[in-house]
Description:
By secondary structure, the chain is an alpha/beta fold. 48% of the residues lie in helices and 9% in strands. A four-stranded parallel sheet has the order 1-2-3-4, with helices on one face.
Amino acid sequence: MRPYDQGPLDAGYANVLVLPPFYYKDPGEEGLYAYYSRVIETVGSDDLRLYLYHFPKMSAVPLPVALVTRLRAAFGPVVAGLKDSTGDIEQTRAFIEASGGVAEGFDVYPANEALLWDGLKIGSAGTISGSTNAFAALSKAALNAPDNDARETAMVRVKAARAFAAQFNMMAAMKQIEAWRSGDDNWLRLMPPLTALSGEERERLRAGLKGF
């Protein structure tokens, strides 16, 4: 059997983060429901944990809140959570309130670590973010800080680091940082259409990292 004939569970991955189909830009709730249902039924295992990926800036296909409640009602814990990459905490709140959030076994993640505590306060599960590959220690410090000025100070640093990382192509920047950290330039390989940082961007990235 060819590797790509295997399902995610066969390859050892129970948790999958799944974008909507984005070639057709207005599939409607029924089309989206049919799509995610087909994915779940094709995998055909109660061990699957599917996380919906709400990222309309990239996909141009937003996920309605009502879709989440329908999928949860139909498939229960197989539909395990949602990553909301809008950066709009009120959108994140709407998903949490509709699903019950972590209290009901549905993990909602806001866009990135800059919303870590804003999300936790309304029932999110934490954060999934590419830039934590470089700045995980800052996020951990903010997560463990007491609920006072120390936490606010820690979150200022988290937000500054995230804003700095966002000045670059995130994937290229994270791979460049890992290449420096590990001494292994194999990390610099990118799948087209992504391209490596320019020489000027690399220097700016290296200099900026010293501030964190």
